Amino acid sequence: MKPARIALALPLLSLAAAAAAAPPEHAAQDARDQIERIATLDDAGPMLNAVITYNPHAAADAASAPAASLLAGRTVLVKDNIETREFATTAGSLALKGNNTGRDAPMIVNLRAAGGVVLGKTNLSEWANIRDDNSTSGWSAVGGLTRNPHAIDRNTCGSSAGSGAAVAAGMAWAAIGSETDGSITCPASINGIVGFKPTVGMISRTHVVPISHSQDTAGPMAQSVADAALLLAALAGPDPADAATADAAMHMTDFTKGLANASLKGVRIGVMRKQIGNLSGVSALFEQALADMKAAGAELVDIEFEPDSAMYRDEYTTLLFELREDMGTYLAGLPGTDMPRTLADLIAFNDAHKVDEMRWFGQSVFLQAEGTTDRPAYETARANAYRLAGPEGIDKLLADNSVAFLVAPTTGPSWTTDLVLGDHYPGGIGAGSLAAIAGYPHLSVPMGAVEGLPVGLSLMGAKWHDHDVLKAGAAYERARSATLAQPSFERWEPAAR
């Protein structure tokens, strides 16, 4: 028997509209409504497990935010690998359950200065999905399994699983995710929201539990492109402690400017035909999205692209080497005592706590990373992966075809969650690794649903062209003709014909 639908005082669509359009004085009420949704949907009912902890004083904090500030009391949930002064930062692992640093990551300092309210911390794939090859996205030892609001027996993707699910369920105005390769855009696509992975270096990574300084970045996840752009404007900025942000000030802007009247007329867009995959539902949605863009005046150019397998091989070598080094640097700098200080310490912790940490999957990637110590081989791999993804990947495709952006489906619809056997991603769909490895901007915007399961459209552009990508996404958003799925908070069932 199907469970009863969850009845709430404020429906999801009304809540999303209110958060986008409400004057600042309504921020406190928005926060109260969002906390009610967390209590009703996350801690009870379908128990989405998207939010690990939240601030019960968020409404008061929202009420006291300056009305003239950029965010004016809007609430933001933060992925639990990003430090905030009031909450522990665990990356989902029991090894960091006591990681109360009492400090804000620079991006959170920027968020608060812009009038944003930290509503709480979101669940994630433990260690941002880098611990084992057979992991289940959305599961962590600290937060449990995150469930997809559109179908609670299906996956949220990861690693920003809680951020994607929470925004889809109306638990905050927006959320912060982080990505090394697909960890913002995939959960955005699968949860039916907007996710933006900015150019690496637009947002500081200081006080963020790392994987790779070459590819890591935080980014906004929201109900609309305009909201994502507004949150990006609040988070972006240079940080002396993060060399990648040295040029951020030259590319910061009001990322919302021009979005309302952005047009695709005369814009040449490269269509990545070989990255559509072979799921008929996804292909049909993508063709509809292309038709919408063409009707809005875009000039579509078919692109034949086959990535060099060496790009993925060398990316993996890069991530393994940088994980060991970057994680060690982060852990060594943690305040307090009795904390892990190296990747080897984390491996030992997992071995000592197998029942809680490794019931469902192991730590094969951690073990590989601990043994990846050849620096010359790493430097060669990083240079080659970047070359194939950036200068000879996105840059070449844009230049050779005289196009401003590349488009493809982001990924396929959500798969059934299987803690025993792990993830089973739909293969052959999307090209987001190009933007991830190169460090270029990548936006996922909802383009419809397959059997009630959301699917996103990816738009990718050149380095530091974040604003242009957002404007193109906003223009597509207005032109979109597909009906978007709304969360059911139930198990998936086939729709009636």
What does this protein structure show overall?
The protein is 36% helix and 13% strand. Helix 2 (27-42) runs antiparallel to helix 3 and helix 14 crosses helix 15 (432-438). The protein is of the alpha/beta class. The longest helix has 26 residues, at 375-400. Helix 9 links the parallel strand 9 (268-272) and strand 10. The strands form two sheets. Strands 1-3-2-6-8-7-12-13-11-9-10 form an eleven-stranded mixed beta sheet, sandwiched between helices. It contains 16 helices and 13 strands. It is globular, with a radius of gyration of 21 Å. The chain has a single domain (12-238, 263-479), classed as Amidase signature (AS) domain (Amidase signature (AS) enzymes, Alpha-Beta Complex), CATH 3.90.1300.10.
